[in-house]
Structures are given as C-alpha cells and as structure tokens.
TrEMBL record:
Belongs to the fatty acid desaturase type 1 family. The chain crosses the membrane at residues 47-68, 131-149, 155-177. It comes from Trichoplusia ni (Cabbage looper). GO terms for biological process: unsaturated fatty acid biosynthetic process. One of its GO terms (cellular component) is endoplasmic reticulum membrane. It is found in: Membrane. This is Acyl-CoA Delta(11) desaturase-like. Coiled coil: none annotated. It comes from the Eukaryota. Keywords: Fatty acid biosynthesis, Fatty acid metabolism, Iron, Lipid biosynthesis, Lipid metabolism, Membrane, Metal-binding, Oxidoreductase, Transmembrane, Transmembrane helix. It holds the Pfam family FA_desaturase. It is a multi-pass membrane protein. Residues 13-218 form the Fatty acid desaturase domain.
C-alpha cells in the first residue's frame, strides 16, 4: 500500500509538472512573443524577458524574430494573400497548413517591408535567433523529459507526455486563434474584418479569443475589453508580473474610444450588462415588458 501511494504521488507530480510546462510555454506565446514583442503592449524587465524567452523557445514556434515579423504582417494584411495564415483559405490552412506550405510570394514581399529593428536591437532576441536551431530541440523535448526522471519517471513516458504531447497541444490551441477565431464568432468592434470574438478560443488559448477586439485595438495589453481572468490567463499573468515590478508600461484603451468604435463599425453584438447599459439597443428598451 505504501509503495502504491508513493507511486501515485510521483505520477501526480509528473502530470502536474507536464501541465505547468504546458501553461508556461503557452503563456510565453500569448503574453510574451505576442503581446510583449509583437505588439509592444507593455514592457518587461530582464528576469521576465528571460523567463518568457526560455519558455517561448520550449513552445517551439520559431525564433522571436520570425514570429514577430509574420505576426506584424498578419495584422497589416489580415486575411489576404500577404497574411501567412490567411483564414480565407480555410480552417485547415489557418490552423496548421500554412506551416507546411510554401509561403505565398506576397507574404515574403510584405514581410520584407516590416520594421523589426526593435527585435534586432535586443541582444537576448538576437542571441535566440542566432542559436535557435541549436537549442530548440533540447529545450522543447529534452528538458521536459529529464525533469520527471529526477523522481523516477520513465524517460520515454516523460518524452511523449511532457515533450511531444505538451508541444502538440500547445501548438494546436494557440493555432485556434488563427483559424477558429478568424472564422467563428461575433464582431462587436469591427464587422468589416474576419477576426471574431470566440469564447472557446479564449478559454483554450490563454485569453486570445477576444480577437475582434484585439485586431481593432492591438496595442491593448489585455487583448480584450471584457472577460475575467478565467477567460484571459495571459492578462492575469501580466498583471501579476506588474504587481511584483517585472512588467510595466501597460497600455490599454479608454472606454470612450471603445464606445465610439463599437457604434461606428461594430455589428451590434457588443454585450450589455443589463437595463440602462449605454450600449442597450433602443428597440430592446422599447420592447421590454415592465410589470
């Protein structure tokens, strides 16, 4: 019985460590290479930058330089031939196909016009870009494999669960931002663009499913107007880092600007909190039954 309990504790510890590596590598994409380095939505001190860079490398999604360049092209030429993961080519292409296909000439041409001088001026990011393929397999697969062996887990089990499975789940949950959040959902901020509000994606991808808002206001560190921490773990992470002084200069959007944009370009789906909300449609107000 004692041996069984001991084994169960170690198995639980193994699963917990694999889950934490999944969380850290995923949030390093959403809060790190996305909100910090691609959009400059906040600033980070050296300890946080090192943390995010290490776990972003574990996420195995390319060097920061290449990710940022492609993402900035995506925002400037969203869902066109110049968009690396153009959702108009279908769900599969936006989810994973674009990683397997040759880049459209427009993606390359527009990518060459993108300013990435801020990335190139950062010694840490230059170092990561230079040695990326020398270290990525070690950090993505070997480190997660080695850690559980410290308490007796089998190496192959650790490799496939904490290494391969964690990596695949992380890649596909993050990729839902490019696919599902560009195809399914409402558009309360700008009905003229493909990105949409998708709560399922927000839940699975650390808060990145408020995508119509994000493409309308890409400099907001929250990447969302609404939704608590339960639907936006990346915002929770950044706020915690700000509390301990590792994150600062957090940028956001005024309620007045949001209201103006909703009324000007939204599809009418902007949520209301209840009666007398300023966004409540007049027709809803008139048709309400008050007894």
């Amino acid at each position: 019985m004692r041996h069984f309990r001991s084994t169960s504790i170690f198995k639980l510890l193994f699963l917990l460590s694999a889950y934490l590596l999944f969380v850290f590598s995923s949030v390093s994409v959403t809060a790190g290479v996305h909100r910090l380095w691609s959009h400059r939505a906040y600033k980070a001190k050296l300890p946080l930058r090192i943390f995010l860079l290490f776990f972003y490398t574990m996420a195995y999604q390319g060097s920061v330089l290449h990710w940022v360049r492609d993402h900035r092209v995506h925002h400037k030429h969203c869902d066109t031939d110049a968009d690396p993961h153009n959702s108009k080519k279908g769900f599969f292409f936006a989810q994973i196909g674009w990683m397997l296909a040759k880049k459209h000439p427009d993606v390359i041409a527009k990518g060459n016009t993108i300013d990435v001088s801020d990335i190139l001026s950062d010694p840490l990011l230059r170092l990561q870009n230079k040695y990326y393929f020398h270290v990525v397999f070690i950090i993505c697969y070997m480190v997660p494999t080695y850690i559980p062996t410290l308490w007796g887990e089998e190496a192959w089990t650790a490799f496939f669960v904490a290494g391969v499975l964690r990596h695949l789940v992380s890649v596909h949950t993050i990729s839902l931002i490019n696919s599902a959040a560009h195809i399914y959902g409402t558009k309360p901020y700008d009905k003229s663009i493909c990105p949409a509000e998708n709560m399922t994606v927000s839940l699975l991808a650390s808060g990145e499913g408020f995508h119509n808002y994000h493409h309308t206001f890409p400099w907001d560190y929250k990447a969302a107007e609404l939704g608590g921490y339960s639907l936006n773990f990346a915002t929770f992470f950044i706020d915690v880092m700000a509390k301990i002084g590792w994150a600062y200069g957090l940028k956001t959007v005024s309620e007045d600007l949001i209201e103006k944009r909703v009324k000007k370009t939204g599809d009418g789906s902007h949520p209301v909190w209840g009666w007398n909300d300023k966004d409540m449609p007049e027709d809803d107000r008139k048709s309400a039954i008050i007894s």
